[in-house]
Structure formats: structure tokens, C-alpha cells
Amino acid sequence: MDAATLATDHTEGLANGQASGRASVRYQVWATGLLSLNFGILFFDRNALNFLMPFVQPDLNLSNTQVGLFSSALSLTWALSGLAVGRLSDRMGARKPVIVVATLAFCVCSFLSGLAGSFLVLLAARLLMGAAEGGVMPVSHALIVGEVAPERRGLAMGVGQNLGSNLLGSGLAPLLLVPVALAAGWRSGFYLAALPGVVTALLIAFTLREPPVAKHEASGAPRISAMQALAHRNVLLCALIAIALVSYLVVCWAFMPLFLTKGRGFAPTTMSWLMATLGFSAAIGSVVVPAISDAIGRRPVMIGFAFLGLILPLGAMFFTGSAWLLAAIFFVGWGLNGLFPMFMATIPAESVDPRLTATLTGLVMGIGEVVGGVLSPFLAGALADRFGLAAPMWLMVGLTIVAGLCALGLIESAPRVVQRRSKTALAAA
Prior knowledge:
By secondary structure, this protein is mainly alpha-helical. It is built from 20 helices and no strands.
């Protein structure tokens, strides 16, 4: 799609949809797809260390506790950055410049990770990477909410957060980085991960626009505070779910490669494609799970897919059959990844105020990353050093049960479902 076509799409969208200010469907698809690709490159960078850890750990003589600290450090600065940048973006009303600058910054941090020669230097590089990357997702969601029609919001936000991140960050990353590490050393993997973000930063800068002012913003409707928003039942429950499921993900990323290679005795190449299965599962789930929730509601999908996550750690520990069947278990269990844009952005924005999308996403993500993402890998590493590498798997089992129980308390927020129920109630009255 060239610049002239995008400019035409902007004009047509504003002419045909002046009330909402949204661009054409074609531009909405392009914006969502490009932001999804950009977030995928970001996750390729974030996950690179996890897939390279079987090579990094012996080279730098790291303990399992130190392995967990890398994820904790990145999660901490990621969370703080998400909180600060999301709120700043909402106050400024600026989306595109924030994403461009953050994208270029995390490319630099990935390159610095490849230069690290000790635990402390690599830890510092991961802290900086979290600070660079944390604001990208909240601001991307805010841009999508500003451009995409409400009836397609769940699907668009699912694609924006999960499609690219899982195809690249969880699917392509282990398949590409492990062979690169075997052939040229683990440092080359980080250098490779740093390059594509420059391209997406330029595409965002030259082909995307700032989303238009929403109708309720233009009308001067009062804006509630972030703390008032957090008091809403759905936002509070989404924050608790974020703690559980962010913990589930970072523990899996940090320790599943080690558990498969050291605990189960799989070769690094087998581990790489088993982990890649998670990426392809989540890529499909990024479309399927939010689309189902658009049709039947957020709450039942949140409940069902949260409990579905039980089969992944249980399968990793106890399934002794074919590696292909284990990959199928991984594929199905990782379907819960499709829930992330729903509890981090979609449900809070629908429940409170779409103008606070970046703030709410940063808030829920920040709570999840600080409490779950920072503490859980450290805890998992300490448990692994004391009880063995199966301990992080049992921690994952407990976390998905907690998430499912919290989802039982959600209030339905999907626009199509709420509207349908309202019509049914009016007809009954």
C-alpha cells in the first residue's frame, strides 16, 4: 500500500464517516496490521534471550535465579514505562511519535544485549529494553481504538497485540535464533533481532496518522481519573487476571526451554519447534479468540480459555508420548494467549472510557508486569534451584486456576452482546 493510496483512504474515510472521524476499512486493516507487525518485532527482541538461554547460561555461568532475574528486570521497567508513557500519550493526545521513538529505542537495546559479557551488563541491557518497549502496546491499542469501529474492536485489538507478537516473537524466534546461535553464537541472535524494527518505525512514521478526536472527547464529556477507573469491578478483576496470566507467560518463556532440554532431555532443536508451536497457536488465537468474544461475549471466553491453559504445564510434565502429540497439547493449551488484549485493553476500555485506553492498558499491564512479571520469574527461579525445574511448571498450574476463578466475576462488556441483551430486555418489558 503506497502513500498516495493511504492519503486517499484518509480522505475517503473522513468524507464518508465524518461523525466518527474514522478512516476507511482498508486503512483500518493496514494500521492494525502494521502495528501488529511492529509489536511482533518488539516481542522477537523481548523473547530472544529466553530462546537463547540454553547457550547464554553456560557461557556467562548463570544460576537459575539469575535467569529469572532477567525476566523480572525487563518486566519491571516494561511496567513502569507502560504506566508512564500510556498516561502521557493520553494527556498529549499523541500516539504515532511515541511508537516511532520507542521502536527505535528497543532496536538499540537489542544490539546492546548482544554486546554483554557478564550478568550485570546483560541485566542492565534488559532493564533498558523494558523501558523502551513498555509504552508501545498501550499506545498502539489507543491508536486502534481511535480508528477501528466498535463492533470489530475485539478482533482488531487481538490482532494488534497477539498476531505479530506470536508469529514473530514466539513462532519465528526459536526457529530462527537457535540455528543462528548454533552456527554463529548467541550474540549474533541479538544483532539479528535489532534490525527489522527500523523498517517498521519508518513505515509507521510515514503511513499512519494521528487518530481523530472521538465524539465524546469533542463534546467535553468529563474524564474520570485512573484511580476511579481502577475501582470499577471489571478493571480490578482484569488487573488480578493480568497478575496471574502475565506470571504464567513469563515463567513459561523463562523456564520452559530449560525444562524441556534439562528436565525432559529434549534436544535444543526439538525444544525450539515445541516452543515455536506456542507462537503459531497464539497467532491463530489472536484472531479466533477475540472474534469469538465479539460474538458470544468476553466473560465466557475469558473463563473457558483461562482454564484451558492447565493442559500445557501438565502436558510438559507428564505426557510421555510422541513429541508431535506434545506439540498438539502445547498448541491447544496456549490458546489462553488470545485473552491478553481482552483483559489488558478491550474489557477495561469498554467498561470505563475509551479515551483512557492507553492509560488503562498501561495500568492493567503495569500491575500485571510489576506484581506478576517481576516477582514470578524470580520466585520460579528460586523454586527451581531448590526443588528442580518442575517447580515452575506447578507454579503455572496454580496461576491459570487463579485467572479462571477471577474471570467468573467479570461483567459482560462486548458491545454486540450488551446491545443484544438490552434489546431482549426491552422486548420482554
